[in-house]
Design goal:
Elements lengths: L2 H5 L18 H62 E2 L3 E2 H4 L9 E5 L4 E3 L5 E3 L10 H11 L6 E3 L1 H8 L14 E3 L2 H15 L13 H18 L7 E4 L3 E4 L4 E5 L1 H13 L12 H7 L1
Antiparallel strand pairs: 1-2, 3-10, 4-5, 6-7, 8-9
């Protein structure tokens, strides 16, 4: 059965038999014509309404989307800015550092580390060249003293700096010998600790000093542990093959560092240079006792 037969559709060229044609009354035709015109007017108004409102809807949606995107980006930017503003950065100094050390002192430089462990073809360990380690000698001691700076790495801290650095504890850190407040860049404290551990390895050459015994050495180890974990240096040290030894770490890699010399010069200038802070008079003994 054909599609037309099943659904009884008339063919597209079907015409009514002549005898079945009927004329519509004139009144009905007139009414139909008026209704048709009214419908056209209504449709025209509806079309104009839709044409007017579609752009408004599109603009409204676009504005909301744009506002959301701007707000999201602004939130991220402000969040990052606040984080940097609150904590500082490696290249410009962190907030707790910039109380004393201005941002321009922090200068970055790149250097390849030296002094790793090497091996002879027979597998014997050989220490890489270094000014700071090896058999004890006056030359090695001079090298360490040059980077630690002796007493020159301790400088005067102003009262305003002390209050900003230590808050409610600022009086606790008053220097009762020299007056005012005394501080050092922790970099020099770490170097001092490392030098003491170096000396402890050779008590046959470096006799134990008072207050520099086992307790002090353990303090140094734990302080250096915290500094290393805090700084979180993430340069990759590769494993290298050595005959008779196998794989061994090679730490002689490129690192991005702060310029040590610039920080050292700043510390010396704070000690007795043109930016040294004058010390306040020492408190009398009765005032010191009353503050205990």
């Amino acid at each position: 059965m054909s599609f037309n037969a099943r659904f009884k559709l008339l063919p597209y060229d079907y015409e009514l038999p002549r005898g079945e044609e009927r004329e519509e009354p004139a009144e009905k035709l007139s009414t139909s014509s008026e209704d048709h015109q009214l419908q056209l007017v209504a449709l025209s108004k509806q079309s104009r309404f839709r044409a007017t409102n579609i752009p408004r809807v599109v603009i409204t949606v676009a504005v909301f989307i744009l506002w959301g995107v701007i707000t999201f980006i602004a939130g991220i930017t402000i969040g990052k800015g606040e984080c940097r503003g609150d904590w500082g950065s490696f290249e410009n100094g962190f907030i707790e550092e910039r109380v004393v050390t201005p941002p321009h002192i922090f200068e970055l430089t790149q250097t390849t580390f030296t002094g790793g462990v090497d091996f002879t073809p027979e597998g014997e360990e050989v220490l890489g060249q270094s000014l700071y380690v090896g058999e004890p000698s006056p030359e090695i001691d001079v090298a360490w003293n040059a980077i630690i700076g002796g007493e020159s790495h301790y400088f005067s801290v102003s009262e305003a700096e002390a209050k900003q650095l230590w808050g409610m504890d600022w009086e606790k850190y008053r220097d009762r010998i020299r007056g005012g407040w005394t501080g050092t860049l922790d970099m020099f404290h770490c170097l001092h600790c490392l030098n003491q551990l170096r000396k402890a390895l050779r008590r046959d050459y470096y006799p134990e000093e008072k207050y520099r015994g086992t307790v002090h050495q353990l303090h140094c180890i734990d302080h250096l542990r915290q500094v290393i974990m805090c700084q979180g240096t993430s340069v990759i040290s590769p494993s290298e093959w050595h005959d008779h030894r196998g794989q061994y770490i090679n730490p002689k890699q490129l690192h991005t560092c702060r310029n040590f010399e610039k920080l050292h010069e700043f510390s010396k200038a704070r000690y007795n240079g043109n930016i040294a802070v004058p010390r306040e008079p020492r408190l009398h003994s009765h005032l010191l006792r009353s503050s205990d």
